[in-house]
């Protein structure tokens, strides 16, 4: 039996949808398992005081999500649009512009982390926890936000070309 180009394309789309769906559910499952087991483990390892500090610092880092300004959906939309039209110049332009914006926002987050680390002694009484450790954790989280923002552009590109399986696989690592 001969397969037409349309039938072959439909089969590829179905396979892609199945792969994307499986990768998404695997990502959700792993996140759920990590969420359930991480908190008691970290609490046991760190102790109450250090765990409270860890939660406080992560809550501050959580506000970095405001810096994304909705560009994640923008890059996915325009990458999908220009990829379908095979307009590689505009696809490149949109990707580069958002990458530069995210580098700027990530730099802002890193500078903010530096300021918070500098002000750490005045923010809270950290008790027996070393101020050096607190500052180091704050700066590491700032770096994490910086690299996370810059790297999220590539995730948006993968979602725009409907390669959720690759994007979810990267998220799992």
Detailed description of the structure:
85% of the residues lie in helices and 0% in strands. The chain has helices at residues 5-46, 48-62, 71-85, 88-123, 131-160, 164-172. The mean pLDDT is 83. The chain starts with a helix and ends with a helix. The protein is flat. The protein has one domain (5-172). The chain is an all-alpha fold. The longest helix has 42 residues, at 5-46.
- The tally of beta strands, per DSSP, is 0
* Total number of domains: 1
Query: So what's the overall shape?
Result: flat
This entry's quaternary arrangement is: single chain
Mean pLDDT: 83
Question: Which percent band covers the strand fraction?
Answer: under 5%
Structural class: mainly alpha
Please give the count of helices.
Answer: 6
Q: What is Rg?
A: 21 Å
Any chance you could write out the topology, listing elements then pairs?
Elements: H1 5-46, H2 48-62, H3 71-85, H4 88-123, H5 131-160, H6 164-172
Helix pairs in contact: 1-2, 1-6, 2-5, 3-4, 3-5, 4-5
Write a brief caption for the model.
By secondary structure, the protein is mostly helical.
């Amino acid at each position: 039996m001969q397969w037409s180009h349309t039938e072959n394309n439909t089969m590829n789309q179905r396979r892609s949808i199945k792969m994307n769906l499986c990768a998404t559910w695997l990502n959700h499952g792993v996140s759920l398992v990590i969420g359930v087991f991480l908190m008691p483990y970290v609490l046991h390892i760190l102790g109450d005081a250090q765990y409270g500090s860890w939660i406080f610092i992560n809550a501050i880092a959580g506000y970095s999500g405001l810096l994304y300004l909705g560009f994640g959906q923008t890059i996915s939309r325009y990458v999908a649009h220009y990829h379908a039209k095979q307009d590689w110049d505009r696809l490149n332009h949109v990707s580069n512009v958002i990458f530069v914006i995210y580098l700027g926002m990530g730099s802002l987050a890193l500078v903010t982390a530096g300021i918070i680390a500098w002000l750490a002694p005045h923010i809270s009484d950290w008790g027996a926890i070393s101020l050096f450790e607190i500052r180091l954790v704050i700066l590491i989280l700032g770096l994490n936000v910086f690299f996370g923002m810059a790297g999220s552009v590539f995730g948006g590109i993968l979602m725009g070309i409907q390669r959720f399986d690759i994007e979810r696989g990267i998220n799992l690592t």
